[in-house]
Amino acid sequence: MNSVSKGRNEGIKSVMKDFVERAVNLYENMRDQPVCPSAREDALELLRERQVPQEGRPIEEVFEEMLQEVYSGAPLAQHPRNFSCVPSTASLFSWMGDVMTGAFNPHAGCRSNAPAAGMIEEKLIRWMCGLAGYPKGSGGVFVSGGSMANLTALTAARDLKLPFSERSRGVVYVTDQTHSSVSKGLHIIGFDRQQIHIVPTDGAFRMNVSALKEAVRKDRAAGKKPFAVVASAGSTNTGSVDPLREIGLLCREYNMWMHVDGAFGASALLSKRQRKLLSGIELSDSLSWDAHKWMMQTYSCSVVLVRRQSDLLRSFSAHPEYLKDAEYAEDGTEFWDLGPELTRPARSLKLWLTLQAVGSLGMERMIDHGCAMAELAERVLRTYPGWEIVSSASLGIVNFRYVPFGISSESHLNRINQEIAREITASGYAQVFTTELQGKKVLRMCTIHPQITEEDIHNTIERLRQSEAARRAGRQLDKTAS
Fold this sequence. Notes:
With 482 residues, the protein is α/β, with parallel strands linked by helices. The chain has helices spanning 3-28, 41-49, 59-70, 92-104, 115-132, 146-161, 180-188, 209-221, 244-253, 291-294, 309-316, 348-382, 410-427, 454-465, 468-481, and strands at residues 139-143, 170-175, 196-199, 225-232, 257-261, 286-290, 302-306, 387-394, 397-402, 433-437, 440-446. The strands form two sheets. A seven-stranded mixed β-sheet has the order 1-7-6-5-4-2-3, sandwiched between helices. Strands 8-9-11-10 form a four-stranded antiparallel β-sheet. α4 packs antiparallel against α12, α6 crosses α7 (180-188) and α6 (146-161) crosses α11.
């Protein structure tokens, strides 16, 4: 090793030691940080001007610039009071696994490149299939996220249920609560919007099975080919779970593929108390499940599970001559035969490390805690006049809005609630976003982080109530009344 390389390596060693300390301190003091810091304009201007240099810069200088100008302005998805979207529950355990896996950089496309990593991935897939109630012969593969998991499963559904000559007649059923990645994935694999039929939901935002059955019968009578139903196990908007058992039985009756988008909610299978909400998931043909949503993982760490692993092989297996020497498994099946990726990182290792450190009971307690916090939020909100629950707490999600007495204009109410959300997010204390349900703009809290406290819930709701937008609406009413 020449002196230049040795010097650079010493510099990397020094800054990495410093970084580990800073990162651990960030997690330990996360509550003291603003949830959504604003990106500094001077930092953005510096980056606009920065170009790729002809000669490298000192690593210490680059390191500090990355920390101060790039990472410091990013929202903290792993903050306990980040209640927006489905926030990350990322833990230091997963980060540690990320660092270790990145350092060794195993190629997880086949077992010969990383035998131990392959063994761990197989073990975790079998464990998760078992939690889902899948039989012997089931399988799956780790992928980047729910979008790729949904696309992978729907590709297998298409290839099994629709001969090429019938694809133009194919129909798949979703609801208005189905995640947008499903329609995007269907477009990628060759279906247009007219082939995606939206089934209405009930008052709890769950798929209406009677309406689904009627739609299938009408489409079949019209010469169409219903081939798949996408059910939600924990929808992003409301945490609602579609009637999985009834949908599964209907799919078997009409020879359709049942896919469950459980990217967020499938983690409830880890809890004895919550898994009953997912009864019937064992009837599905495939399931997407994101560990980076509710299993303490950093992005990205997701799986697609299938009742019959052979369905993935049918769609993705390829054995070019330049990979023959790398084939290791006795049956010739490698991970690259089960999904779109050839080169793929060992995503399972950080989950394995986390599970070894936390244990399945630790995961169960985390799931139950997240659900309990949403239920607490609902109870607290119900004690205040003018605050309306739009969808009750389900799998750690609750939707509500401020409806001051005397204001009936939906556009006015929508504007008030939008302003309340913007105000609390701008404050840095918590991040609360809005969504739209039944044409109403509503506030939404997702409370799945394991470090959320009851105090966090009470204080966040109090800040919503005392926001300038809410108080201004009250003052306007007082003026009108006088």
